[in-house]
Design goal:
This protein is mostly helical. The chain has twelve helices and no strands. It is globular.
Length: 237
């Protein structure tokens, strides 16, 4: 556990030692601020559900960018081989890197908290859906980051890692939801089950369904397991 926390701490600090964390946070707040507040006063109701939709769009693109170099850059520079020859298990490397990215994601979400507080000062805001929505977007972000880490474990090229993870998260987070009205029958049911937005929308309405939570945790766990196997295979190659 200590090794995991050491790796997570080092990676987390590296985000803020460079421009990555500040760029992501500023872009996130800028996009949400513009697209939420512009039509807010025309809607005539105190609701922040649109915030979670905007954050979901942002993490679809930001997640792959945050994770593309977590293992790919370590491979390219040769430090990964040095790391796995030390008395550190592959699982500790994977969880350490993931916790660092998840910590940054938590910071990003914390920076958006002034928005619901501002909305509550303008009207009667129901805080139940707000907190369940934040739970949903946190879990969705974790799934996106885990997918990005998985693809980063496959290659030593950050650009390849970025576009592969972006393609998968784009389909799961956005494309399935957009295409669902044109689907029918079993295909629509499968798409609804796989769509990140379908599960997020339930949580954003204030309904904490264990199936939605389990879905995001399952995607996260599967992606991390695949990343672990990919990293473990390097020890024997």
């Amino acid at each position: 556990m200590r090794n995991t926390l050491t790796i997570a701490s080092r990676q987390f600090r590296s985000y803020f030692n460079g421009p990555v964390a500040y760029i992501v946070i500023c872009l996130l707040l800028g996009v949400i601020g513009f697209f939420f507040w512009s039509p807010f006063f025309l809607a005539g109701r105190a609701s922040v559900r649109q915030v979670f939709t905007l954050i979901a769009y942002c993490v679809t693109f930001a997640g792959p960018a945050l994770t593309m170099g977590l293992l790919a850059e370590e491979k390219r520079s040769g430090t990964l081989e040095l790391l796995i020859t030390m008395p550190i298990r592959e699982a500790e490397v994977i969880f350490g890197k993931f916790l660092a990215a998840l910590g940054l994601w938590a910071v990003c979400l914390a920076c958006t908290l002034p928005i619901p507080f501002a909305v509550s000062s303008l009207g009667n805001l129901d805080w139940g859906p707000v907190w369940s929505g934040y739970l949903g977007i946190f879990l969705m972000g974790g799934a996106v980051l885990a997918i990005g880490l998985m693809f980063s474990s496959f290659t030593d090229n950050q650009i390849v890692s970025f576009f592969l993870s972006l393609a998968v998260t784009f389909v799961l987070a956005l494309l399935l939801g957009w295409m669902m009205p044109f689907m029918s029958g079993t295909v629509a049911t499968i798409a609804d089950f796989l769509s990140f937005m379908s599960h997020l929308e339930s949580l954003a309405r204030g309904v904490i369904d264990s199936r939605d939570v389990i879905y995001f945790l399952s995607v996260t766990g599967f992606a991390l397991m695949v990343a672990f196997r990919a990293l473990e295979s390097r020890r024997w190659s």
